[in-house]
Amino acid sequence: MPALLTDQTFWVNVFFAVEWAVRIAMIVVVPFRRSPEAAKGWLLLIFFEPAIGVALYLLIGRPTLPAWRIQRHVEFMTLCKPVYQRLGNDPNIFHPQLGPTLDHAVTLAENLGRLPILGGNSAAILSDYDGTIDRLIDDIDMAHDHVHLLFYIVADDATMARVIEALTRAVDRGVVCRLLADSLGSRPDFGRMLPRLLAAGILAEETMRVGFFRRRTGRIDLRNHRKIAVIDGRVAYTGSQNLVDATFKRGLTYEELNVRLSGPIALELQAVFVEDWYVETGETLSDMRYFPDPRIEGDVTAQTLPSGPGYPRENNQRLIVSLIHAAARRIVITMPYMVPDEALLQALQTAVLRGIDVTLVVPLPMDQILVCLAQRSYYDELLGAGVKICRYGKRFLHAKHVTIDDAIAWIGSSNLDIRSFALNAEVVVLLYDTNVCASLAREQARYLRDGQMLDPAGWSQRPAAIKVAENLARLLGPLL
Question: Which of 162-166, 190-194, 308-312 has the lowest mean pLDDT?
């Protein structure tokens, strides 16, 4: 036996036996409750590098929330059941019937996210970066009772300084101000800012905390990517823009798109914020002050769809695939990160075969190399199917919106990739309104005017080394 323990051949055989045991075991483990695309990506990594692959899988490979967080979600649904019932039955809220061409989207979104369609809203499309911050600050300065902010990135810079000044003025007037920021997305700035925020009377908390020695921490890849602002339960914002300077990444200037909403729909975005606040703090915000009697502010019909690993399905993925399949004339998708799964890719290809005009607007520059390379690996298939692709390079286009048949607008925080579908907490607002779609169409026309349409023949001539890099990144697409 001692001789065996010193036999180099014996240990080499043990090493290979363990590696193959790991590979075979993970063939059983990885596909469990996972899409085929994600399973193939993980298994490919594990087969090439079993030790590294298993370590990464144990760290970030299982899209499940901690038990305490799931329990908080369950508790919240019980505590806030009266609020949700009120959104469905309040006599001051009406639920328009949109007809058979749109009712499928309404029903699907409600069954996925538990939030109903609401009429009587106004909506303003905001595409000016600094102008959006100005508008938000104006609304904070008009607040009477509370201001609730939830953002993925909260930076210690000039943009956020202006928001903090407005929040401080609001606190001095007796307004309750709450601020949630994603722990990883806002690191390290938010941690440094917390003492200042709390000293100013702003109730600030991290969401999805990370750190080896911190209580109730979570996985680094499960993030709260939402962007929500709610003022007095009457005005709300959502979209793609964070609380950070437009030039926060060297060499890039970000261009965003948000929507300012007033009317009953603000109560749905409030409900999303309130749940996230409860999960992080245990404080229940179900008082009438946070859900005031709704006012009719316009004629826009709207609906909120939250999504994330706390839901049993990939809400945004189900909805966007369904909307594409139901389109009758035209689809325009503006998206910074689009690494489609098989269902989304087939939906786009099938839409073109059905005679639908499909246009995809994406950024020309790259800010996340692997994701952007993986995204570009799909352009050949999309162009070959007849999808038009415009690359916008005037600024880094971070806006996330979709229009279907100039009748349904999707605006929010969600990208069209596995991260937004399965790993991130996201939120989108559906606006069933031709005027809102017309406003988005003007933005889309500007993108097309200032961008470059991809020529299939020219795109196919890019260097072989680039194609190899794109396809290697595509293999990692399910892991990005």
Answer: 308-312
Beta strands in 185-288, from DSSP E residues, in sequence order? 203-207, 228-231, 235-239, 254-255, 258-262
Rounded-to-integer distance, Cα 115 and Cα 106, Å:
10
DSSP state of 226: -
Check the CA dihedral 39-376-238-277 and report its sign.
positive
pLDDT of residue 148: 98
Round the average pLDDT of the chain to a whole number and report it. 89
Contacts made by residues 95-101, CB under 8 angstroms, sequence distance 24+: 95/119, 96/301, 96/432, 98/301, 98/432, 101/326, 101/328, 101/407
Spatial contact of 389 and 454, defined as CB atoms under 8 Å apart: yes
Contact (Cβ atoms closer than 8 angstroms) between residue 286 and residue 79: yes
Instruction: Identify the band that residue 125 occupies on the pLDDT scale cut at 50, 70 and 90.
Output: very high
**Which secondary structure element, helix H or strand E, spans residue 476, and what is its range?**
none
CA 93 to chain centre: 27
Residue 26 scores a pLDDT above 80: no
Q: What is the pTM of this model?
A: 0.89
Give the model's pLDDT for residue 376: 95
Sketch out the chain's domains with CATH numbers: 8-60 (no CATH), 67-302 (3.30.870.10), 315-479 (3.30.870.10)
Task: Provide DSSP, 279-316.
Answer: HHH-----STTTSPPP----SEEEEEEEESTTSSS-HH
| Cα–Cα dist 375/469, whole Å | 11
Assign 249 to helix, strand or coil.
Answer: coil
Task: Give me the half-sphere count of Cα atoms (radius 13 Å) on the Cβ side of residue 96.
Answer: 16
Q: Whose CA is closest to 303, among 149, 410, 226? A: 410
Helix-then-strand count for the chain, H and E? 19, 17
pLDDT in tens, 250-278: 999 999 999 999 999 999 999 999 999 99
Do 244 and 96 touch, CB atoms closer than 8 A? no
The C-alpha angle with vertex 314 and arms to 310 and 319, in degrees rounded to 5, equals: 130
Q: Which run of H or E residues covers position 391?
A: strand 388-392
Two tokens at 344? Answer: 């989304």
What sign does the CA torsion over 428, 270, 431, 90 have? positive
Residue listed under structure tokens 């809400």: 315
Q: Phi/psi class of residue 363: alpha, beta or left (left: φ > 0; alpha: ψ in -120 to 50)? A: beta
